[in-house]
Amino acid sequence: MRLYLIGMPGAGKTTLGRALATAYEVPFRDLDDEIVRREQRSIPEIFAQEGEEYFREQEAEVLRELVAELPELVLSTGGGTPCFHHNLDVLLETGLTLYLAVPVPELVRRLLQQASQRPLLAPALDAAALETRLTETLAARQGFYDRAPLCCAAPICSVEAVRQLVDRYNATV
Ligand SMILES: Nc1ncnc2c1ncn2[C@@H]1O[C@H](COP(=O)(O)OP(=O)(O)O)[C@@H](O)[C@H]1O
Ligand SMILES: O=C(O)C1=C[C@@H](OP(=O)(O)O)[C@@H](O)[C@H](O)C1
Ligand SMILES: [Mg+2]
């Protein structure tokens, strides 16, 4: 199986993805980590030195390489991954995609301490600005996220909840 996690920054894609891979006993990859490894520099450095367009090209390439390489995989994507370079089509065609739906106020709580590591959020320094920024970003991305066949909403999105969603989905296809 290939299971892909999509959703906003702070939704828990990386955290839950790692736990799901352990539970399913399949390899785990985090798309951002793979880009960092290939580029030998951090995500904020890539954005600052090369710009977002370059990052999106790397993201699209690394995604396709991982899919070609790994028939079994839990992949945590970046928040913007499904929205660029037809990446969502790749996800939908090659595996099962799960959208982690987390309300903006909860994202704000989780991200406030981490904004400096997330270049698209870095300009939003206080809670109100971050909330505005996330609300706008989510509005622009919602149409992509909603194409995922599976959706799990906080606070119930545990490994067990995902397993049940996946089992139910597999029983219907
Ligand atoms: N289910 C959860 N409940 C509360 N906090 C969480 C949960 N999942 C992740 N977090 C926290 O939220 C932050 C972002 O999580 P992360 O897995 O990096 O999200 P993403 O990869 O979607 O951006 C981290 O500080 C993490 O510890
Ligand atoms: O939302 C986005 O466009 C981004 C989210 C980040 O991943 P997380 O969703 O894991 O924070 C990372 O890919 C990059 O900073 C861009
Ligand atoms: Mg992540």
TrEMBL record:
Pathway: Metabolic intermediate biosynthesis; chorismate biosynthesis; chorismate from D-erythrose 4-phosphate and phosphoenolpyruvate: step 5/7. Keywords: Amino-acid biosynthesis, Aromatic amino acid biosynthesis, ATP-binding, Cytoplasm, Kinase, Magnesium, Metal-binding, Nucleotide-binding, Transferase. It catalyses: shikimate + ATP = 3-phosphoshikimate + ADP + H(+). GO terms for molecular function: ATP binding; magnesium ion binding; shikimate kinase activity. Binds 1 Mg(2+) ion per subunit. Mg(2+) binds at residue 14. Belongs to the shikimate kinase family. This is Shikimate kinase. It comes from Hymenobacter gelipurpurascens.
